[in-house]
Amino acid sequence: MPGRSAEYLNIIPRGETRVIQPELIRAELGDLDMAVGPSPAACEYLGFYGLDLSSRADVHIRQGKRQVGGYEVVLQLWTADEPRATLLVLHGYYDHMGLYRNVVAWGLARGFAVLGCDLPGHGLSSGAPASINEFAEYQVVLQALMAEAERLGLPQPWHLLGQSTGGAILLDHLLRQPAAARLGQSILLAPLVRPRAWARSRLSYQLLRHFVDGIPRQFSDNSGDRAFLEFQRRDPLQAATLPTAWVGALDRWIPQVEAAPACHYRPIIIQGEQDMTVDWRYNLPVLQAKFAQPEILRLADARHHLVNEREDIRREYFAFLDERLA
User: Fold this and answer.
1) Which of 46, 254, 271, 285 is the most exposed place for a label (fewest CB within 10 A)?
2) In Å, how far are 121, 219, 221 from 241, measured between CA atoms?
3) What is the C-alpha separation between 150 and 152, in angstroms, rounded?
4) What's this model's pTM, rounded to 2 decimal places?
């Protein structure tokens, strides 16, 4: 099983500080297809997050950047010899591709090329930390990711995978874009439509937005993997605030996606029933109404961060996906 916690997470010794330098890494990057090995700063990043996948000598890693809607967006590509399809990955809010080793390892084991990027304001990409002006900017990033897959000639079909806000970006795309023959399966992990306790959060936003730019972030136990939770709290690429601009963008996006007409796509939706981040009891009926009989796997013991849940939970849903992406 790819991505065991003990292998994936380099728990930072207490009292030790790790520094990842996004600006330095970005400055040293060019196009994704340039035959240039990772810089020392990029190697430090890949090793720290376990993205070098050092146990697999056949894996080739490329990093690059693109100008997308006023942002410098960092892209990463993992390929083994002769991939048979491509997995495009969009991470969740506060996340970055550094936390997605489990998905990368699973995709490579399936024979996929794996292409992902850090969203604006996240990870190695530029932008105000954890912020966005409008959710429409995320669609521009997704289009750029697909354009990069096209430019690089990555093999079709292109399967899509999004966690939480990444899932919201994908469902927005599926609802608003015509059918594309190049797309394979669309996998939504704990997708965001409305967050939990949205009415209260929205009221707080309306009261505070004229007075503050953000509020301190409150970390939650969003996974049953204790090692991941410890690492997440000391991850040097985690944002420390919840910007009111992002909440405002979400507030404007929710009624738009809820009003979007239904479509013929049949995504795979995986949802934990112990999820205290999104309002999944509200979201699942919305998604069932928007899509043509989506396949839904509900996991009784899973929390929100499915990409980094306990190994037994990941084993269950990856086996479910294996059957559908055979």
Assistant:
1) 285
2) 12, 10, 17
3) 5
4) 0.95
